[in-house]
């Protein structure tokens, strides 16, 4: 619950900042000076980019949470059996073993979003956040497709 509170607070603060930046950009765009208009245009592009990134990350987080709740209800969440150092780093050998298990599962059931969700978790534990997010996006898209089909 704490995480959702802080996430919400950061979102609200970012939204306030984006509205303020958008208002400033709009004021720059309305001035009859070319340089001011260029600054306003650049600022507006940054605001649009910020809104897009915020929306994309929000929908990603909502999707991950939805899939996690579904897997938890089914009893299919992967157990976190990897030991961690005092600093929080996963034991590399154990993380690799867990990764091999979930990679084989994803190969055996490539059409099941659940296997891709678990593979994503394994990538994250192994320290490969880029592939973890890529596979999680795949799992979210697959689950959405399966939900809309029936």
Structural class based on helices, strands and sheet pairing: mainly alpha
Roughly what percent helix? over 70%
- Discrete helix count: 5
Q: How many E-type strands?
A: 0
| Mean of residue pLDDT values | 93
Rg computed from alpha carbons, rounded to a whole number of angstroms: 21 Å
Shape descriptor reads elongated
Low-pLDDT runs:
none
Strand % is: under 5%
Q: Quote the distance from N terminus to C terminus.
A: 32 Å
The secondary-structure element order is HHHHH
Total of domains? 2
Outline the biggest β-sheet.
none
What can you see in these coordinates?
With 150 residues, the protein is an all-alpha fold. The protein has 2 domains: 2-74; 92-149, Alpha Horseshoe (Serine Threonine Protein Phosphatase 5, Tetratricopeptide repeat). The protein has helices at residues 2-29, 34-74, 92-108, 113-126, 129-149. Helix 2 (34-74) packs across helix 5 (129-149) and helix 3 (92-108) packs antiparallel against helix 4 (113-126).
